Every structure is written in structure tokens, then in C-alpha cells.
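hey so i finally got around to running the thing on that chain from the lab meeting. sorry it took forever, my laptop kept dying and i had to restart like 3 times. anyway pasting the input first so we r on the same page abt which one it is
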Amino acid sequence: MKPGIHPEYRPVVFRDKGANHAFLTRSTRTSDQTIEWEDGNTYPVIDVEVSSASHPFYTGRATVLDTAGRVEKFRRRYGQKG
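ok and heres what got predicted. didnt touch it at all, straight out
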């Protein structure tokens, strides 16, 4: 890799306020807001709207769409007559 052209890769906290969940990882994202983490260090914090703690797929609250029923309804409504 060429030196001096890549952004700084450092620890950052991502926080999902809706699910009251936060996790520490490494990222190139920056933020003016900071948070004191469980280890006593201060890290930049980035607020996200959806994380694995609040997404329906990961929480088991996902709904399955009845696509076969929709196709049959379409065919009944707009299919060939006679």
C-alpha cells in the first residue's frame, strides 16, 4: 500500500439508540461526538438507525410475504377470461 493516501483506521463505537445497543469496532469513519467505553477509554461514536440488534431479520421479527398468493390474485383479476 502507498503510504500517506489512506484514511486513519482506528477504534470507533457504533451506537443504535433505538435498540439501546453499542459495539466497538475499527473503522475509517470519524465523528465529533465521543463516548467513554467500558474499558475507560474515550472513542468517537457514530449513531446508526439500524443494526443487528434492531433489524427484523436478525431479531426474528421478520414477516414472510405470500408471493404465491399475490400471483394467483393477479391472475384471477387480470388473467385471460374464458
